Every structure is written in C-alpha cells, then in structure tokens.
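Render this sequence as a predicted structure.
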Amino acid sequence: MTNEHTMHARYGGWAVVTGASAGLGEQFADALAGRGFPLVLVARRAERLEEIAERIRAAHRVEVLVVADDLADLASMDRVAAAIGGREVGVLVLNAGFGFSGRFVDGDAAADLRMVQLNCTSVVAATHRYLPPMLGRGRGAVIVVASVAGFQPTPWFSVYGATKAFDLMFAESLWSETRGTGVDVIALCPGSTKTEFSVHAHYDRPPDGDDPREVVETCLRQLGRRPSVVTGFSNKLAAFAHRMFPRAFVASVTGRVLAKDLLRTTPDELRKRPRAVK
C-alpha cells in the first residue's frame, strides 16, 4: 500500500502518464508530481502538454519531460521509449483513450479500429516494455485506466465498452501475476467524470459526474491493496449488478439507460433509424 509520503520511496524513478493533456491524465500528473515523481507526459497536443508541464514544474519543483505523440500509431511506442531513454520508469499510468457513442453500424470502421489500438493495443505494448524492468528491480507500479463500462455489455457504446473490459481483465490478470514481486498493478474504473470525454464521445450531455482529482486520489490510495477500484457509490452498484442478473437482462437494461442518458432517445427509436450514409 502507498501514501503521499512513501510512494516515491516505494516505486522510485519517473512517472509516465499517457493521455496527460487533460482530465484524469492531467490529474494523475499533478498527484504524482506532488508525491515527488519527475514526470514524462505523453499525449498528442504538444502545446497543451507544455502548458501543463510549466505549471507542474513551478508548483512541485520536479523535472517534466513532454513527449507529443499519437499512441494510436503502432510505431509511437518506439518513439516514446527513445524520448524516455535510460530514465527508470517507476510508475506507468496508461490513461490515453477515447470512446464513441451511437449505433455500431453508424460508426466509422477506421475510427473504431483506432479506438481499439489506443485503448488496448498501446496498453499492452507499453506494459510489455516497462513491466519487465520493474520486475527486474523488484519495484514499480502500473495503473490501467479502464471504466465502469467494462463490467457489462454497453449497447450504443459497444466498442468502447469492449475495450475497457479488455483493459480491466488485463490489469486484474497482471495484478495476480505480479503479487509478491514488489510491483503493484491496478485497474481504475471510473464512471461519469468531469472531463472532456463526453465531447469526444459525441453524446448529448455536458461534462458531469465525479471530480477527476478525487477519482485519481482514490486510485492512488488503493494501489497495492486490490486489483481494481470503482469510484463512486452508484458506479459500484452498476459494476456489480451484472453478478445478480442474467446477462441478457443486464444488456437490455444497460441499453435503455445509455440510450436515454447519452443519446436522449430509446433503443426502439435507435433501431428504427435508417443507417447513416458513409
């Protein structure tokens, strides 16, 4: 287990945060810098990363390296690794990702495949690169940002929910594999959070939900204690409801809830719509 005073002593090295240009990624960067970690911030938006880096340097007096790259590109991990060089990575926060809401048949295949690449493939690639050295040193931490959406089917959010189910199972499996090694792994499973996610996911609701700072602090408090953490009471109910009901029932209820909350309509109306012209 870790706390504000011992975390850097326990894991050492630098903290690498992907998707660090906003939302949970930015909050992880702040929280880890406050715990004494020098940072590597990775995201596509170079100018935004530089702004965050300058603020963190001034506030926390730590080194911050900015790496502007698109992790949806398979070759990006080599470029990121080259920028990190010989720096010891003590904490790896795999937060980069995006979602899309609506009918699967109306979605763009290239965008969906890019989502799988960013949300899943880049997570596996980064973990392959940085987990073995952690195990060799006998210390380190990997935080995979999954979602409460990963616990059950998510109609009208199908590809995103599936990618987060992958992230959740991947992280929990690694938690078991690394027990007793000095390396901690956890999946963070937030629900609706006050970030830019809703804008990029194209659903009809302004950013609302949990405070991203509180979500991050909850995750860091539970790191080393459990394989995954769900933030927020209502999210915990949603995450574990599937254990009590048949999967068909859960998929049906989730479909109705997501259609209403995200798309302001009903499943029947969505099914009747003509397919979008591509």
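Summary. The first strand starts at residue 14 and ends at 18. The first helix runs from residue 7 to 11.
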